[in-house]
Amino acid sequence: MIATSRNSALEPVAAKVEAGKRLSQDDGVALYQSRDIHELGRLANLVRERLHGDAAYYNVNRHINYSNVCVLRCKFCSFYRPYPTGDRRPTEGQGVNGGLSLPLAGEAPTVDSPTVDSPTVDSYELSVETIAERAKQAYDGGATEVHIVGGLHPKLPFSYYTDMCRAIRELCPRMHIKAFTAIEIIHFTRITRPRLPIREVLVQLRDAGLGSLPGGGAEIFDDRVHDEAYQNKVGEQGWFDVHRTAHELGIFTNATMLYGHVERPEERIGHMIKLREHQDESLRARAAAFNCFIPLSFVPDGSALADRPGPTGLDDLKTLAISRLMLDNVPHIKAFWIMQSAKLAQVSLNWGVDDVDGTVVYYDITKREGGSGNTHQELSVDMIRRLIVEAGRRPIERDTLYRRVERQGASWRVEGRCDPENPENPASPRDS
Ligand code: V47
After folding, report:
1. Mean predicted confidence (pLDDT) in 104-131
2. Residue 66: inside a domain, yes or no?
């Protein structure tokens, strides 16, 4: 049973939050240990309203996953497929993501994967033309952002990624391209000959049209967790090197945390504190910083950790609220509704969250229903606004950089910062 009375263990933490002081590792762990969920929600809401009042942000976007082929075998992941053996090639131009028709559910299995239990999905890679066409379809429908990520593909050359950005830029001149996690950026440094440094990879992508980096690939910054769940993946140093370099170049980025698999509460808090320290540095010395923190609720279905239960609703809500309290220097906390569900994302708007991502449309990386579920995962703008209004918040359409979007149907323009009057929002993007 959940206690509803005020828990005295939280009083020192409450005093710090009310005074605007920074929380420590122990404070964060105390918040996780507390069963006083009402006090936790109150505190997170206090900080949320200090920063954003009653505003709640969303965007009109489209996710595209260019390929599920990946050289890694992360245990939490149900998305990856190995590169096919023999004469076979990944399915080209189709994929399960965002096909111009509905996804290819029920396909016969053609690829054996030792760890992933999702036999209906084959390996695929999309051509640059297909990606640009899908972006254009979204752009014509009024999307302001395309969010593109994929696996670490062993064969595609770096020019595939720069060509992809150029092709989208050409067809959709005002659309923001948010693409490639830090792990993909490191992969690009390894596939170029001679090897390009991170900075040069980012500069070439930016010149081709890249606008910002999503927050993926962070998982949990902890060696124990890393070794247990994603051993061969680039670790925290590589992830931070990419984000540091992006910030130096004036490229805004996001940050994520994948929780609810093999990590412990204190490791989640450690993760948040590492991000907070990095953000201090970026705000002090660099041209850009993290815009948003996105706690990603682990979906076990179809992964090698499918025997784990994944987070409960209460754990989701607590993690979102604690993120708001710990990350005092990151302006936005997002409940990515695909992960926490639209219903819980709505509730979280009074628990520290100020952003719910957007319309999404297709999402391949996680699928409910045993890992082979439908990748068509879409919320209409009307539904997003309804969720926000019912939560007692004021819906504001934003672009990727949190500038207000004024819209009439499919046509839109950016109106400057969402919160120009709010100096407490430390990493608001400069007007440019
Ligand atoms: O890096 C993989 C995660 C991430 C699972 O920046 C999983 O606005 C849950 O980073 N269960 C990619 N999560 C997605 C991502 C993202 C999403 C939405 C918005 C933004 C943003 C970024 O998805 C991966 C990994 O951490 N992931 N498998 C899983 N089974």
Report:
1. 58
2. yes
Question: What is the Å distance from ligand 1's center to 55 Cα?
Answer: 25
Beta carbons of 377 and 333 less than 8 angstroms apart:
no
Q: At 96, is the pLDDT very low, low, confident or very high (cuts 50, 70, 90)?
A: very low
What DSSP string describes 107-130? PPP----SS---TT---EE--HHH
Q: Judge whether residue 1 has pLDDT over 60.
A: no
Residue 251, phi then psi, degrees to nearest 5: -95, 120
Tell how many helices (H) and how many strands (E) occur in the chain: 14, 16
pLDDT recorded at residue 120: 56
Asked whether residue 330 is domain-assigned, the answer is yes
Domain count, the chain: 1
The answer to whether residue 2 scores a pLDDT higher than 70 is no
Name the residue of 256, 292, 316 whose CB sits within 8 Å of the most ligand 1 atoms, as the mutation to test its pocket. Answer: 256
Query: Taken in order 154, 159, 165, 170, is the CA torsion positive or negative?
Result: negative
Mean pLDDT score, 201-221? 98
Site residues for ligand 1, CB cut-off 6 Å: 76-78, 149, 181, 214-217, 219, 254, 256, 258, 294, 296, 298-299, 303, 336, 339, 357, 365-366
Q: Is residue 48 part of a domain?
A: no
Partnered with residue 377 across adjacent β-strands are 361
- 400: CA distance to ligand 1 center in Å? 17
Q: What is the CATH number of the domain that holds 132?
A: 3.20.20.70
pLDDT of residue 258: 98
Instruction: Note the pTM of the prediction, 2 decimals.
Output: 0.90
Range of the domain at 140: 55-403
**DSSP SS3 for 6:** coil
Answer yes or no: is 118 within a domain. yes
Once rounded to an integer, what is the mean pLDDT over residues 103-121?
37
- Rounded mean pLDDT of 340-353? 95
Q: What is the model's pLDDT at position 374?
A: 67
Residue among 203, 200, 233 at smallest CA distance from 218: 233
Amino acid at 5: S
